[in-house]
Each structure stands twice: as C-alpha cells, then as structure tokens.
Amino acid sequence: MPADLHVHTNFSDGTDSPEVVVEKAKNAGITEMAITDHDVVDGIDRAAKKGRDLGVEVIPGIEFTTEALGAEIHILGYYIDHHDHTLLKTIKKIQKSREERIFKICEKLKELGISLEAEKVFEIAGHRAAGRPHIARAMIKEGYVRNFKEAFGKYIDFHGPAYVAHYKLSPEEAIKLVIAAKGIPVYAHPAVSNCDQIIPDLISAGLAGIEVYYPGHNREQTAHYLDITKKYALLATGGSDYHGKRSGREIGIGYVSITDDLMEKIRSEYLHRNKPRGD
Ligand code: AMP
Ligand code: ZN
Ligand code: FE
Ligand code: FE
C-alpha cells in the first residue's frame, strides 16, 4: 500500500490542517504517511488521531532546516519520539529564532522598498514560527509581487537580497537530534541542495537514508540517488512534500509515494536501531 513520507501541515508552511492532510491522503489511497513539518512537531498528535479514525497510519516526523558548505540541507526524521525532551528544547529555540527571522526579513525588505508588517506575516501563518512562504504570501497580498516565483526569485531565495539565515544548526547536529529521539534520519531532496560531497559526513553522523523519490527529482537524479543508497547501504525513501493548495506548490498529496517493501525496510531499520540493549 502506498506511503507518502513527506507532508507539511499549517503548523509550519503547509496550508491544510493536520486533519485535512490525513483526509486528503485517505482520498488519494495513501495508507501510511509521515507528518514532516519544518522544525515543529505540534501537528503530529492531531494527524495521528485523524489517522486512527480513518485507518491511515501516521508516522511522527520532522524536517530540520540546516546549512552546510554554503548549501541549505534539509534533514527528515521518521518515527521520532516527538515528546523527547532534548528535541523539544531545541525546537523551542529554533521557533524563537524563526520568529525573530521574520522581523529581520521584513527589515531587509523595507530597505528594498517593500513595506511588510511582521504581524501580518504571522497572521497569514497562523503561528509565529513562520517561514519564507508566508512572507511570499504577504508580498502577493500587498501587491508587491505577482506570485511565489517572483517573491523567491527576486527577494527571498537562499542567495536573494532579503534572505536571512536560520538558527544555526548543522546537518550532523540535526541527525544526532533525530537519533537521540529514536528516529530515522534521512537526507531530504538531495538534488535540490545539490551538495553530494556532504553525504559521507552525514553517514558518519548516523544518516540512515536518502529521499530518492521526490517530485523535484528528474529521472537521472532519481537513478543517481538510488545508486548512492546502494553504494552506502542506505534506505531509499520518498514523498510528495505536500504543502497544500495555497502554498505556491501545486503537487498533490500522494503524487510521489513508496511501496510496501521500501516501507518495510525503513520500519525494520527503526526496530533494529532501537532494539533493547543486550539482544
Ligand atoms: P524557510 O523555512 O523560511 O527557509 O522556507 C523554506 C520553504 O520555502 C521551503 O521548504 C519551501 O516550502 C518554500 N520554498 C523554497 N523555495 C521556494 C520557491 N522557489 N518557490 C516556492 N516555495 C519555495
Ligand atoms: Zn516548506
Ligand atoms: Fe525541504
Ligand atoms: Fe518539506
């Protein structure tokens, strides 16, 4: 049965509630899904409850935003204990930093002649741990740009004039946080980061898998990353990176999914890594 292991809710920059993403997954024929919000775990319990009602298995997950070697690297964590104390402590710090970052982005935009109120951005997000998609939506709403492409392309891309760095977290630190919370760490959409030279370092830190199947990966990239998983004996995972209709991304939930045998390998790696000592 197909599994979609990359789904965002409105607790980060998705536009659907946890209940709605689970409903949409059910309607798309998805039987297992992971909630992977950016730097936040607050949507998991609500999604899991809806999942129990509808017969969809919800895997607790997260997507950490990190930076290394001048690239943005996203680290997914699956089967995390989302009540883990250290994990929650770090998440709290990241969320505070996300809030401050929105003020900083608004200041930079002001210097570029764009007047956005941070409070308006938080209002669009529905929370204060906001991100660039919420900035983009505010810019569109105020008529400064026509669409997401223009907002990111002209202003808030990683190399754009209004970009502000995130809370300083390395991919290795994110991997260690996921492992400490009993999770399975996975390198998200590697072709988007385009930073293969980091893979050996990630493996040394405990990386378990690579997100091979991804809407933004073309056929060659998918084959390339599948080869890498074979070379290093890593798991191959995949998902749609669903963000909802109003998110500036049109990809539907379940657009990319993985099969039972891959899912089974991920599950057994999780069980293997968390075997009681002495077994
Ligand atoms: P942030 O968490 O603030 O760094 O924002 C990153 C998020 O912005 C990504 O996870 C995507 O959801 C979204 N994003 C990044 N680049 C683009 C783009 N060019 N167009 C639309 N959305 C984007
Ligand atoms: Zn996002
Ligand atoms: Fe990502
Ligand atoms: Fe994502």
Question: Keywords, please?
Answer:
single chain; 279 residues; alpha/beta; 11 helices; globular; binds adenosine monophosphate; binds zinc ion; binds fe (iii) ion
Describe this structure in words.
With 279 residues, the chain is of the alpha/beta class. It is 44% helix and 15% strand. The protein has eleven helices and seven strands. It has helices at residues 18-27, 44-54, 85-111, 118-125, 132-141, 148-156, 171-180, 190-193, 199-205, 219-231, 260-273; strands at 3-7, 32-35, 57-68, 71-78, 184-187, 209-213, 235-238. Strands 1-2-3-4-5-6-7 form a seven-stranded mixed β-sheet. A hairpin with a 2-residue loop joins strand 3 and strand 4 (71-78). The longest helix is centred in the middle third of the chain and has 27 residues, at 85-111. The mean pLDDT is 96. The protein binds adenosine monophosphate, zinc ion and fe (iii) ion (2 copies). Zinc ion is lined by residues 8, 13, 38, 243.
Beta-strand percentage range: 15-25%
Shape: globular
Which class of secondary structure composition applies to the elements? alpha/beta
Low-confidence stretches: none
What is the N-to-C order of secondary-structure elements (H for helix, E for strand)? EHEHEEHHHHHEHHEHEH
* Count of DSSP strands: 7
Question: End-to-end span in angstroms?
Answer: 31 Å
